[in-house]
Specification:
8 helices, globular
Length: 350
């Protein structure tokens, strides 16, 4: 019997689709999603959502109904779980990072290592930048025992896209729980400030502003510069990440845009990171909603924390609980929200 998900629940965005498809494919359970992105100005499936669905279908030989642009209903029935090398083109500047979000949980339980080369947008609005995925997402997953790497080939910004990254996933037998409700002692802050088809001083100014903003708050950061001329269009951004002695990694990011000074980009990324550090949380708000999938699949009890109880996080918890026999507990302790769950690692069909 198919799991039925109302796509208008909670924040009502694409995250519901990504998590539902990932868990359906991973667990071997069919899912029907209705009212997809019903609350958005352009409701229904968009190219980047369709790419994730079609990629998951390719990896699981799934029966799919409703996988077309603008569709507000989707039926997805996975049959098997494959692995190997694949090439995927979103066809627009749609986010590569969001496709990676969909595919990673599935590929962790594939029968062999898998590489997926994805073409699209690496640094676009309303999605984690590719450097965040490389330096925060993969490091957090490593704490659960996952071996995931992301190689950046070429950057792509809105509206032209054309970026490329390769997702590399080694399969695991099971994930291990992470009990880390506090960030721990800060070891280092690193970062990347990039500028594509723009003067080098843009990356330099972004990095300088990020370092200075953090210094005013008592933090020291090392920010690498990356200037490139191989993109289809101009673009820039900053990603910062902080590492604790216990292995926690939290991030902050900001994207350049027309009319936005480079200094504002660097300062914005720094302030996001500093807010998470000030709370003592082990996850930043972006990573918290992504992490609940892995917490639910891990062996044992996981405890992690975040400075905000976002609607994205609440929605993702709800979706995970529809697929797995788990029950999350979220408790406000000081400046953090502690997320706790006993994982259910043995419910995969494959």
């Amino acid at each position: 019997m198919a799991v039925r998900i109302d796509g208008s629940y909670g924040e009502g965005g694409g995250q519901i689709l990504r998590t539902s498809i990932a868990l359906s494919a991973l667990l071997g359970r069919p899912v029907e999603i209705i009212n997809i992105r019903a609350k958005r100005a352009n409701p229904g499936l968009q190219p980047q959502h369709l790419t994730g669905v079609r990629a998951a279908a390719l990896l699981t030989d799934a029966e799919v109904v409703g996988a077309e642009k603008g569709s507000t209903r989707l039926y997805f029935n996975p049959r098997t779980l494959k692995c190997g090398r694949y090439n995927i083109d979103i066809g627009t500047a749609g986010s590569i990072s969001l496709v990676i979000q969909t595919l990673t949980p599935i590929l962790l339980y594939a029968p062999c290592p898998t590489e997926v080369a994805i073409t699209g947008g690496t640094d676009v609005a309303w999605a984690p930048p590719i450097d965040y995925m490389r330096h925060v997402f993969t490091k957090v997953l490593a704490r659960f025992g996952a071996r995931v790497a992301i190689e950046l080939i070429r950057r792509g910004h809105y509206p032209k896209g054309g970026g490329k990254a390769v997702l590399k996933v080694q399969p695991v037998e099971t994930l291990s729980a992470v009990d880390s409700p506090e960030f721990g002692r800060l070891v280092e802050i690193r970062g990347i400030s990039h500028a594509v088809n723009l003067p080098p001083h843009v990356a330099e100014r972004q990095a300088k502003a990020a370092r200075e903003a953090l210094e005013r708050l008592g933090y020291k950061a090392e920010v690498d510069l990356e200037t490139r001329s191989d993109g289809l269009g101009p673009g820039s951004g900053v990603v910062l990440w902080a590492v604790s002695e216990t292995g926690n990694v939290v991030g902050g990011d900001a994207l350049g845009e027309r009319g936005k000074p480079a200094e504002a980009v660097g300062k914005e990324a720094a302030e996001k990171l500093a807010a998470t550090l000030a709370s003592g949380s082990s996850l930043d708000p972006h990573m918290a909603d992504m992490a609940v999938v892995y917490m639910a699949l891990a062996q044992g009890t996981s405890r992690m924390s975040t400075p905000e109880l976002t609607t994205h996080l609440q929605t993702n918890i709800y979706i995970v609980e529809q697929f797995l026999p788990v029950k999350f507990k979220v408790e406000n302790i000081g400046r953090r929200y502690v997320i706790q769950v006993e994982g259910a690692p043995q419910h995969r069909k494959y």
